[in-house]
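Example (one chain per record):
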Amino acid sequence: MGKSHSITEIVREIQTGKVAPAYLLHGADSCLQDFVIQAISQQFLNQSQQKYIYSIDDDSEQSVLAELSAYSLFDDNTLIIVRQIQRLTTKGREELLSYLKQPNTQKCIILVKEEFDQRNTFIKKISAVIPEINTSPPLDYQLKEWVTTIARLRDIPIEQDALELLYELYGDSVANVINELQKVALMIPPGESVTAHKVQEVSRLRREFQPWQLQDALGEKDLNQALVVYRSLVNSGISIPQFAINLTNFFAGILWHEMGKRPLSGGFWLHGKINGKLKSYTRHYNTQELRHCLKLVRRLDLLAKSTGLSPDTLMVPLIFEICINKNG
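Predicted structure:
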């Protein structure tokens, strides 16, 4: 307890049957979050047992805390996922910390904080009593390792040159690469390896643009190009959570560059073509605008996870506001 754990370390422990009463997932890579949550679900729950998902932005903290303190009459295990924990009030934080010190072992609580910040006092207090797992987008050299690991666990054989090509085309995040890998795997016979040739074939059929090109259009505040690229990407199957990861990484990258600072370890990763243009993008954005863009993207992610709104309803107004609003 109280130490930061790697995902592989925690998953190995979970697979031996050692599931802790609570975990803290710290970082915004949805694929890595899902990887950990799925491992816990498979070990902790049977088919009839319940999983609950809360977001403090949309659900009252009273209902979340009441669920933590409730006891089952039938000795059933319950998995509870709580997002946006930084939105808890001071009283809510105190109650949560009190619970975590004496948790109910019939429940497994997964707390999720999307923004990675090891200096946050509340996060420090939580990680002092439960295992903390870094689920930030991995660094460049780690991304291929994660894709290989998840592909193996999902029984998708992949050749090395195919992995390199997927990384080049879709390497904004683990989620993007895995999403594309699964689409390719669906188009080949079961058990057959994914090859670079098949990746190229599927890519030509399905996509005119890559995710980094939407970042570039927004960086230049080119509204027409941003809408064209967005339409191509959403038609090819890119999901709102994937857009949210890409745009969070992008605007955070510009912000750090503008401030002349290096990001915190485990912060984010950007395509090489975008990294090379960060200075150019700072001509179009001031610090206030960048912080506003990050708030817009955070709201996009929350609405995608908590409502049934269409991608166009969520993304098109965001693109207009980013490209047209000069004041942030």
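Caption: The longest strand covers residues 107-113.
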